[in-house]
Design a protein that fits this description.
By secondary structure, this protein is an alpha+beta fold. The protein is built from three helices and nine strands. The chain has a single domain, classed as Alpha-Beta Plaits (2-Layer Sandwich), CATH 3.30.70. The strands form two sheets. It has a seven-stranded mixed β-sheet. Strand 2 and strand 3 form a beta hairpin. The longest helix is centred in the middle third of the chain and has 16 residues. The protein starts with a strand and ends with a strand.
Length: about 160
């Protein structure tokens, strides 16, 4: 099982995602940037028992680090984060310029978690919530109509459980 995270800079703030941001933990792998959106995964290519915790920690650190900050052009940095888990298919695409990418329902739903989420919050699926249950706190966000998937229970990841 792979954990997929999307983080989208929704304020159009002048923010450049570095190749290896300080907030990106060594066991969370950047897959690509898509405009103002950053896609990362855990448990791929190397499997780890704590892959779900790695993604939760990264998302919370992004929230804490970027929340309320301003970019170099003084635009408020605002973001949405979406997380899901499941099976993916990976491969290399391109004829002259090669790129590694991932596909599958887990990726699509993680992207929908981001796009239907709220500014400054980390929206995730019930499957992700169940993986880290008891170690992190969540607020139920109710059922959301997710294009192509119907109604899905969603939650906001709020903090590490103390």
């Amino acid at each position: 099982m792979v954990l997929v995270l999307f983080c989208h800079n929704i304020a159009n703030a002048q923010l450049t995602w570095p190749a290896s941001p300080a907030i990106l933990l060594p066991y969370v792998e950047k897959i690509k940037t898509i405009g103002d959106c950053y896609m990362a995964v855990a448990n791929l290519p190397k499997q780890r028992a704590d892959h779900a915790d790695a993604v939760a920690e990264m998302a919370l650190e992004v929230q804490e680090t970027l929340g309320g900050q301003r970019s170099h052009d003084n635009t408020l940095i605002n973001f949405r984060i979406g997380i899901n888990c499941g099976a993916v298919v990976g491969g290399v695409i391109g004829k002259t310029k090669f790129a590694y990418d991932l596909w599958g329902d887990a990726v699509n739903i993680a992207s929908r978690m981001e796009s239907t989420g709220e500014a400054g919050k980390i929206q995730c699926t019930e499957a992700f919530k169940n993986l880290v249950q008891g170690r992190y706190d969540f607020i139920a966000n109710g059922l959301k109509q997710i294009k192509g998937y119907g109604l899905i229970n969603t939650y906001f990841l709020t903090k590490k459980h103390i």
